[in-house]
Amino acid sequence: MHNEKPDPNFYKVTDKDILFEDNHLIAVYKKAGWIVQVDDTNDPSLDEMVKTYIAEKYNKPNGAFLGVVHRLDRPVSGVILFAKTSKALDRINKMFKEREMHKTYWAVVRQKPSMMEGNLVHWLVKNPKKNITTAYNTEVKGSQRAELNFKVLGFLNDYYLIEVDPITGRPHQIRAQLATLGSPIVGDNKYGYPRGSRKKSICLHARKLEFIHPVKQEPVKVFAPLPKDGFWDKFEDFKGS
């Protein structure tokens, strides 16, 4: 339970949160702390906030269709994509399944990784009760294969900025796999960082989505600006791929 009363405007999607929109898709900037779909906290969910935004913007008194195609962990910020039509939802789901959706994340770590770039393959086992994922170097019973590519983009104020391109999309994958390098994400005490963030966020940001539009068949590239929190914004000038 949260003791502090949240700002009522915190749980509201506005025009400035929209990163891309057409008749078929809407990409939204997810703030750290927002949940994508309702969970046992009963906090407002991003999918319901986006439905409300669409219904109000386009005057749809009966509500709006919105399809959830992927998720971001609650303490993670960045771009998240929704489908506005069932046709787009079916096609985007297929694209995610067939790995035709290119996702790029930025992460900040304090400990220098053991490699400056590379490919990581692990087998992950999720503990739903504790909501934590364990990474193994070899396949174990009940595990899922997880793969990502990463490279260190730079160093600033004793912190390293890492660009991550996940090849698979497993729960807590980036968090668990970076921790295996001895480089837990800043603020992520669940995966070995010494202390959590008072803002209930970690320094993992969904920076970019690239894909071919499922209906228009045109390339789409959506960027999410870094959080303006006095820490993340210092990395805005770093150049990723």
- Tell me how many strands there are: 11
Runs in which pLDDT lies below 50 for 5 or more consecutive residues are none
**SSE order, one letter for each helix or strand:** EEHEEHEEEEEHEE
Tell me the Rg in angstroms.
18 Å
Query: β content, as a range?
Result: 25-35%
- Largest sheet features: 11 strands, mixed
Description:
- This protein has 241 residues and is an alpha+beta fold.
- It is built from three helices and eleven strands.
- The N and C termini lie far apart (40 Å).
- Helices cover 13% and strands 32% of the residues.
- The chain is globular.
- Strands 1, 2, 3, 4, 5, 6, 7, 8, 9, 10 and 11 form an eleven-stranded mixed β-sheet that branches.
- The chain has helices at 46-57, 86-97, 173-180, and strands at residues 18-21, 25-30, 67-68, 77-83, 102-109, 117-127, 132-136, 144-156, 159-166, 204-212, 219-223.
Please describe the structure with a list of short key phrases separated by commas or semicolons.
single chain; 241 residues
Concise summary:
By secondary structure, this protein is an alpha+beta fold. Helices cover 13% and strands 32% of the residues.
What are the SSEs and their pairings?
Blueprint: E1 18-21, E2 25-30, H1 46-57, E3 67-68, E4 77-83, H2 86-97, E5 102-109, E6 117-127, E7 132-136, E8 144-156, E9 159-166, H3 173-180, E10 204-212, E11 219-223
Parallel strand pairs: 4-10
Antiparallel strand pairs: 1-2, 2-4, 3-4, 5-9, 5-10, 6-7, 6-8, 8-9, 10-11
